[in-house]
Amino acid sequence: MNRYRIYGLIVESEVEFIQLERAREDEGSLDNTIYIKQEKCSDEVMDVITKADALDKQYHIASEASYFFNKGGFYAIKNGRDIIFETKEGYMPQTVSAWLLGYCMAILLYERRTIAIHCSAVSGENGAFLISGEMGAGKSSLTRKMLERGFKIMADDVAAVRLQTAPGEDKENAFVYPAFPYQKLCRNEVESRNFNMDELIYIDEAKDKFLVPVKDKFVSDPQKLKFLIFLVVATNVDDVEVQKMTGLNQLLSIRQNVFLHRLKGDWENSKEYSELCLKVAANCPVYLIARPIEGNSQEKIADIVEKIYRGEEV
Fold it and tell me: What is the DSSP string of 268-304?
């Protein structure tokens, strides 16, 4: 049985996940151990989705048990503890691992009252911040730029955020929990930085991406969440512009960056989930950074992010 660490949890599975950190045999507890198991579940998955009157969908998400299927297989996520999957013909456990660690894990976190944010998570000396944004806005490039400036990475693509009370404090704060010590980069990014190709893992033929190890730049302990950066490419700006979001826009910035947000359903409107998003938003200032289409703005954006991290005016 393999044992791994991800999002503050211990994963036990016969499936080998080459990108995850290994966990010791004596590490973890029953409360934070989850199980990924390959078992027959297709009939159960389809039965639940059919009875949920969701034949136009491929999923049913609820607080205790959730189900979905895709081209690779069928998946049942139960009680924030078990991920059960059955592969379709032509697929192996390793070929569906992206879905197991993606949608399945995000649903499991939802069942555990934790939000999976679609972003990179970057850590400094006194807390972490999140970098999200539109496709092509430069999220991965900015993350790499911050690493070059001495920051460290906690997650690339998805970070887990949960509320907890830190030792010596009375109120809840939002904390970021790390994923795994790799960053996803497109081929052009990889080639421009002269990485050793023998150390990379090719993961996506459609998008031509690699997993790039971050080694000593990875932070494996949870960090208090300081703020979220949302990057956009704007057609009507000649220089980088910054806007601090407030009120409803701040809350919407969090909700719209939840990894499961694309899976519309009643689960989004539950009182418990709505309150969780509201509390996380209250603990997480959001800065919208717009960059022009032309030119390379990464250095200027990185300067702005460092100022925000230090608490300076931007």
Answer: GG-HHHHHHHHHHHHT--EEEEEEESSS--HHHHHHH
For residue 21, give both structure tokens.
Answer: 């950190």
Q: Count CB neighbours of 93 within 10 A.
A: 18
Task: Give me the pLDDT at residue 295, please.
Answer: 81
Phi, then psi, of 37 in degrees rounded to 5 = -130, 140
pLDDT at 206: 60
pLDDT tens digits for range 84-108: 999 999 999 988 998 999 999 999 9
By the 8 A CB rule, do 128 and 224 touch? yes
* Tokens found for residue 287: 């800065």
CA dihedral sign, ordered 16, 18, 19, 24 = positive
Q: Helix, strand or coil for residue 132?
A: strand
Q: What is the pTM of this model?
A: 0.91
Q: Are 178 and 222 in contact (CB under 8 A)?
A: yes
| Domains of the chain with bracketed CATH | 2-112 (no CATH), 117-181+218-309 (3.90.228.20)
